[in-house]
Amino acid sequence: MKKLLFLSAMIIFFSSTSMVAQENMKRENAEKIQEKRKQFYERELQFSEAESKVFWPIFEKHQEKMEQFNNKRNRPKLELMSDAQIESHLDDHWESEEQKLATRKELVQSLRGKIGVRKIAALPQTERKFKKELLRHVRGERSGDGQGRRGPRNGENKRFR
Q1: What pLDDT does 142 receive?
Q2: Strands, DSSP E only, in the chain?
């Protein structure tokens, strides 16, 4: 009985230690991504020092709000839902989309007059480019060669890599 209790305690200890380590890794990765985002935006949008000082606090506040929407996002299995549940889910989805749009508009209004209008207009494109570059980087790391996947998998058409 003592062995079973000891074994249970060890399992709980190691699993909790593992979860803390995973949380630390997630936090470190998020910080690295944020730093890469800053470097990318600075390079793409060519912020002056004054623009950069004004932009980042506003943008980081915006990102926190958008992250709340991403954390709430759920993808229920529609085949398991009743029509009434699907109706409710659709209403919630569109309400969330409207809130996201309002948050994006708020960002634009907050930045007007503080950075150039061309830079404000370029933000969505810059974010898409950043995500594309980040994804390319992550894929390169996973393959181990830093180059990403080099050729088609079995049965894939070479034109559509």
Answers
A1: 67
A2: none
From residue 25, alpha-carbon distances to 13, 15, 20, 68 in Å are: 18, 15, 9, 20
Q: How does pLDDT run across 17-44, given as a tens digit for each residue?
A: 555 556 667 778 888 899 999 999 999 9
Mean pLDDT of 42-65: 93
Give the span between the Cα atoms of 93 and 74, in whole angstroms. 9
At CA 101, angle to CA 54 and CA 88, rounded to 5?
145
Rounded CA gap, 19 and 12, in Å? 11
pLDDT of 161 strictly over 50: no
Torsion of CA 62, 37, 131, 155, to 10 degrees: -150
Tokens of 124: 């969505």
Distances (CA, A) of 115 to 22, 26, 37, 93, 151: 38, 32, 18, 32, 43
CB 41 within 8 A of CB 122: no
What pLDDT score does 36 carry?
92
Q: Which two tokens stand for residue 26?
A: 């997630």
Residue type, 49: E
DSSP state of 115: B
How far is Cα 144 from Cα 158, in angstroms, rounded to an integer? Answer: 21
